[in-house]
Fold this sequence. Notes:
Strand content of chain A: 25-35%
Helix content of chain A: 25-40%
Structural class of chain A: alpha+beta
CATH architecture of the domain at 21-50 and 76-188 in chain A: 3-Layer(aba) Sandwich
Largest interface: A-B, 66 and 66 residues
Order of helices and strands of chain A: EHEEEEEEHEEHEHEH
CATH class of the domain at 21-50 and 76-188 in chain A: Alpha Beta
Shape of chain A: globular
Number of helices of chain A: 5
Radius of gyration of chain A: 18 Å
Strand order of the largest sheet of chain A: 2-5-6-8-9-11
Oligomer: homodimer
Number of strands of chain A: 11
Distance between the termini of chain A: 38 Å
Amino acid sequence: MTVNYPNGKKNNWTAAxxxxxxxxxxxxxxxxxxxxxxxxEDTAVIHKKPTPVTIVKVDYPKRSAAxxxxxxxKMPSTTDYNxxxxxxxxxxxxxxxxxxxxxxxxxxHAHQLVHLDAxxxxxxxxxxxxxxxxxxxxxxxxxxxxxxxxxxxxRHSIPYAWFQENGCxxxxxxxxxxxxxxxxxxxxxxxxxxxxxxxEKENIx
Amino acid sequence: MTVNYPNGKKNNWTAAxxxxxxxxxxxxxxxxxxxxxxxxEDTAVIHKKPTPVTIVKVDYPKRSAAxxxxxxxKMPSTTDYNxxxxxxxxxxxxxxxxxxxxxxxxxxHAHQLVHLDAxxxxxxxxxxxxxxxxxxxxxxxxxxxxxxxxxxxxRHSIPYAWFQENGCxxxxxxxxxxxxxxxxxxxxxxxxxxxxxxxEKENIx
Lengths: 205, 205
């Protein structure tokens, strides 16, 4: 198990990675389970990247595994997930939102949007998954829509209603808790064709 | 900086990650530099995945960054590098070989070949980069060739001559030390076309 970036805690304690360290990980676990199912069905090959860590000290005890004794979380240079589906390159970031009114723009780093924009430019499929934990709703947002909002927004957050207008609710099942490929099929692979020419629908509705 | 999997050292010491910890990293650094150049030119978006680590304990000191105090190296579930080039999904593993006669098959995990095979099946471009450090030669091997060898080999290593027959020597320049996209252009994007139908030349020569 890996942990997410700690959210600015100031307490001075050492903790085993338990429930506190797993905050915000329910979505990650659901996506990982979904990706594992896609992989087992041979539908898609999409994985979460490991949490980037800067390793400073490593202990090599006799007869046991190397132990990292000093390391630090590092800013990720890209997004958390990527892979391949129906011949297309897939790239996305996933975030939970605890608010019931708006999604803070700072949840997504500017360089992650720059990365998603580059993916679009090179013909990939780029998007963001946002879960509104209070509503138990998980939205698929094409990266283009998120980037447009970012470029033109006068505020620091995105209201809930915007997600309903600019995103798609992702269906959920027991084996595929975040079945986002259903949305991809509708938006990028409709009419039985692999639209591998890199052209994509920009609008959802 | 991150370190590679330690190669079974048994000494009981704690070390800062210096030259010893960087062994086998010259190729990684060369590929990272090349990828950074591709990114800066906007030619391709290809990144190394972070080294997978299982985090056990995290210390949150007052007024400073969270410090990981116990973590272990984890077996990677996929390959080290992936991304997008000319609309195609790219996926590869890179290895250095210190021998001057043969490349040990165990350098590449079976599940990594399974992963590369899945990438091919879904229409991506999958390959392996192997540097023969003694010859200062870096070869591009289509994953299909490596998988075929693995499936049919009666020995535990691949002789040097096989690489000359089944791979392509990757050109090198100061800004692009491992310019593997030149090989991709020749093998997968010849005749000015993006062969995004997933068909690939299986033979090099």
